[in-house]
Amino acid sequence: MSTVKSHVEGTTLIMERLFKAPRQLVFEAFSTPAHLEKWWGPTGWDTKVYSFDFKPGGIWHYCMTCVDQNQGDFYGMESWGKSTFIDIDPYSRIVYTDAFSDADGHVNPDFPVMTITNEFLDTPKGTLFISRSEFPNEEALQQVVDMGAVEGFTSQLDRLEAIVTQ
Q: DSSP characters for the chain?
């Protein structure tokens, strides 16, 4: 299994992972609701996509629910998210804002809104995926890191790898 490399540059969290799969397949896993529902969210969480309009200005609204009783107080918890796509370069890049929201799609002001740029690069060994999460300030970045964002996203990418390498 590949490992995730992560580091911070200013107010940007950068995470990289190599997938032994074609770039088109990895990109489609990020751009199709049926695929996202199979792997989006950390291990032990299920995701349901409520809206997904994959075009600049389009909205992606989803809910992750903890279904793993071994996760204690998290069991049964819902975490809603709302993203707005900014730029899409098929099979190469997806740029979007990402925010915590409620079931109605209202952004939660207690958590930062980040701008995420996901890049998909061909390599001789497969696809290099690079995700850059830009935060409004260092405090916002630290808040999300303290919530376990690196571990959670790493777990998500483990789930994705299991799908794209079948």
A: ----EEEEETTEEEEEEEESS-HHHHHHHHH-HHHHHHH-SSTTEEEEEEEE--STT-EEEEEEEE--GGGGGGTT-EEEEEEEEEEEETTTEEEEEEEEE-TT--B-TTS--EEEEEEEEEETTEEEEEEEEE-SSHHHHHHHHHTTHHHHHHHHHHHHHHHHT-
